[in-house]
């Protein structure tokens, strides 16, 4: 049976499901995509705010230059222009004692030397931090699968100031997990990939809400390819599907629930506190990593999106286990932003707290799945040494699974 005669059900309308549906439809499969929610996007979604009459992301999503699969997906759906890129790596930081500073890599040096130079130039850093960075580079390719990032850094005697200013910031931002539990083998891969070249060692951000910047361009292409997008359709049992192939594009906990697997899946929370101000708040950058505070990242969303009107800021807190109420969170982050900006703030015109309790499936050893021959797993379940649960992993997982389906069809033809 050739691809044109094969019917494929993709279960899950997040980035993985959308990517899998796209790649399979491009190869001629008849694809039906099932999403339980009323909108596509999964956890990379936007909501419409009636008061502000605008779309707002649950939280900001940064890109890095090493996200090659995501960049190809954006190019394939003609949406590359929806990402704004730094010309070269600049990680703006702030703490109460030193004020604003940055990890800034110059473009005229090879990335390895540029990164060492950037670390040495940060206040209170010097040879000890440079030496630790060299040790990280020399030891990153032989990490034990069970070793934590904290154990790795203790092994190389990384100074506390380097851990605070750079390594912990990156670990929380990319893996959504603190150093003492995050997997060293995976974090080493993140560092090796992200700092492999000047092209990879930079950050970017979406200049439109994700619903418009990524989700709708992919959905538009899917509709043009004849894919059926079934929203508000919950698949509770595989027996409901009479398709030749089923692709499960779900996070591991949702996949296990569908398959009746009782194994626990560890996840981690992310808290986003949205604030809209009538007054202007002077900040030196569109994003700032905040050190020694409850707030971890501060994003100037309105500047990123080039929006007029109220100034929209969003504070992101990874691995947030504080369980504070919205009012408590708002009071705390307002005090921290006042300290950083050096100005008294009027109360925001509007606030909104969004707490994604299962924002990230954590990197853990994965059990072998015993799936029926026609069922393929494209879900988010990273193991040690694999990329953490990011947009990039979702796209890569979908691409690999789609290739398996395509190859299986060729073999059976």
Task: Give a quick rundown of the structure.
The chain is of the alpha/beta class and 413 residues long. It has helices at residues 15-26, 68-76, 111-121, 127-139, 149-155, 160-175, 184-194, 210-224, 252-259, 301-304, 326-341, 391-412; strands at 7-11, 30-34, 46-49, 54-57, 62-64, 83-85, 90-95, 99-104, 203-206, 228-230, 245-248, 267-277, 287-290, 297-300, 311-318, 350-361, 375-377. It folds into 3 domains: 3-56 and 209-265 and 366-412, 3-Layer(aba) Sandwich (Rossmann fold); 87-201, no CATH class; 267-361, Protoporphyrinogen oxidase, mitochondrial, domain 2 (Polyamine Oxidase, Chain A, domain 2).
How would you describe this structure to a colleague?
By secondary structure, this protein is an alpha/beta fold. It folds into 3 domains: 3-56 and 209-265 and 366-412, NAD(P)-binding Rossmann-like Domain (Rossmann fold), CATH 3.40.50; 87-201, no CATH class; 267-361, Polyamine Oxidase, Chain A, domain 2, CATH 3.90.660. The protein has helices at 15-26, 68-76, 111-121, 127-139, 149-155, 160-175, 184-194, 210-224, 252-259, 301-304, 326-341, 391-412; strands at residues 7-11, 30-34, 46-49, 54-57, 62-64, 83-85, 90-95, 99-104, 203-206, 228-230, 245-248, 267-277, 287-290, 297-300, 311-318, 350-361, 375-377. Strands 8-7-13-14-15-12-16 form a 7-stranded mixed beta sheet, with helices on both faces.
């Amino acid at each position: 049976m050739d691809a044109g005669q094969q019917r494929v059900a993709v279960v899950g309308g997040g980035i993985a499901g959308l990517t899998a549906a796209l790649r399979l439809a491009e190869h001629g499969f008849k694809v039906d995509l099932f999403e339980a929610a009323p909108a596509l996007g999964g956890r990379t979604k936007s909501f419409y705010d009636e008061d502000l009459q605008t779309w707002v992301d649950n939280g900001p999503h940064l890109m890095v230059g090493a996200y090659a699969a995501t960049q190809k997906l954006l190019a394939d759906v003609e949406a590359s222009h929806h990402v704004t890129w730094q010309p070269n790596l600049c990680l703006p930081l702030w703490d109460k004692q030193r004020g604003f500073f940055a990890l800034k890599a110059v473009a005229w040096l090879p990335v390895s030397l540029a990164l060492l130079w950037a670390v040495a130039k940060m206040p209170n850093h010097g040879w000890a931090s440079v030496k630790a960075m060299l040790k990280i580079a020399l030891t990153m390719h032989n990490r034990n699968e069970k070793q934590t990032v904290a154990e790795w850094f203790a092994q190389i005697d990384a100074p506390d100031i380097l851990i605070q200013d750079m390594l912990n910031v990156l670990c929380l931002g990319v893996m959504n997990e603190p150093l003492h539990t995050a997997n060293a083998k995976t974090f080493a891969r993140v560092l090796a990939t992200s700092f492999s070249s000047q092209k990879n060692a930079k950050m970017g951000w979406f200049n439109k809400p994700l619903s418009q910047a990524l989700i709708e361009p992919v959905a538009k292409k899917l509709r043009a390819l004849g894919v059926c997008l079934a929203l508000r359709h919950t698949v509770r049992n595989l027996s409901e599907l009479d398709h030749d192939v089923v692709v499960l594009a779900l996070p591991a906990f949702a996949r296990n629930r569908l398959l009746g697997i009782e194994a626990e899946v560890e996840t981690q929370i992310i808290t986003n506190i949205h604030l809209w101000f009538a007054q202007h708040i002077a900040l030196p950058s569109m994003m700032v990593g905040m050190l020694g505070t409850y707030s971890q990242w501060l994003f100037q969303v309105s500047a990123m999106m080039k929006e007029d009107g109220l100034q929209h800021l969003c504070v992101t807190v990874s691995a947030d286990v504080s369980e504070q109420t919205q009012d408590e969170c708002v009071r705390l982050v307002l005090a921290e932003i006042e300290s950083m900006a050096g100005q008294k703030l009027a109360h925001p015109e509007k606030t909104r707290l969004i707490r994604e309790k299962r924002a990230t499936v954590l990197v853990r050893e994965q059990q072998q799945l015993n799936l029926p021959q026609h069922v393929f797993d494209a879900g988010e379940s990273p193991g040690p040494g694999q990329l953490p649960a990011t947009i990039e992993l979702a796209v890569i997982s979908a691409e690999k699974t789609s290739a398996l389906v395509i190859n299986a069809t060729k073999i059976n033809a």
